[in-house]
Amino acid sequence: MRIGSCGLDECIQLVREQSGWDERRGRMRDRNRGLGAAAYLHVGGGARIYGSDGCGAMVKVDDSGQVTLITGASELGQGSETVLAMMVAEEMRVPLEAVHVINSDTDVKPWDVGVHASRTTFVAGNAARMAAADARGQLLEVASEVLGAPVDELSIEDGVVSVDGEPERRMDYARLVRRRLLREDGSIIMATAFYDPPTKRQVEHRGNISAAYGFGAHVAEVEVDPGTGMVRLLGYWAAHDVGRAINPMSCEGQVEGGTAMGIGLALSEELVIFDGQIAAPNLHDYGLPTAVDVPRIAVELVETIDPLGPFGAKGVGESGIIPPPAAIANAIADATGIRPRAYPMRPWKVKEWIDTGERSRVLASEVRNDG
Fold first, then answer.
1. Residue 334: CB partners within 8 Å, gap ≥ 6?
2. Which domains does the chain have, with CATH numbers?
3. Catalytic: 145?
């Protein structure tokens, strides 16, 4: 782990070593096998395509010590609820199970520009952390009054505030909230925040569109049947710079899912329209890759600690889908000597490229011999 914003070199080195690139690249053509690599750069902190790229958050602490985050972010299955809850728990110094996330009621939740551009962890995470820090500060002010000690002499562990060096002088969040509620000028513990990243809207496709950028590298190993053009994936290695991995298992899952989608884009998925009708109108016929088509994906996370990200994190949601088509095309080129020219690389296309390429080689050889 290091402080910085670009781990591309580390990503390239990881997939290079794990795939055996130096020993095997260009040396397996006699077995119709090849290795191909691709690297990427992608936004990891949103993309300012509207006037605002911000997200709102509210954090409330109730009189039982439970913490509620009301976030503008939307959970689409990407695991944002867990990540945001983890950030709030860390900032509030409470166990994760003490944090409840609400994001499904648009009558209650604050504004957010939407789920796109790998922005939720970075943008919604910063908003949630800011609101949680404000709520924690309010609790420390109450604790300072009740415990009779300056705020800078107070510590928090598992939702309990204590005086440094005097652990017997302590009070948990629940009692502190009730103390504030029940006094004559009582009020609730609640904080709001809105985070809009320091980016600029693009003008003529120029300008800093994102506050953070993700990097990574992939290597694919393929076997090509020259008689049929069938491409079989034998191995896959992926390394991604994710800033700090707040939830490592979720990060790995995002990369694996994106890579599987990229494999479909590379080899099988195609929207064909014939006479105004979609030729494959359902998922059964469309060509989605299945577990049979996707090899084990070896995922490595490179943590670089982004200086603007919440706890150093940046987005990884879309990055997995970017390198696979290029990595697989390069692997096919290594296995056959023929450069693929279009996606998806269906068997009949690959066979045509191989046959055409072989004829071109023969003609070129004849010209050289005649010369």
1. 25, 26, 28, 29, 34, 35, 36
2. 8-44+212-362 (3.30.365.10), 55-195 (3.30.365.10)
3. no
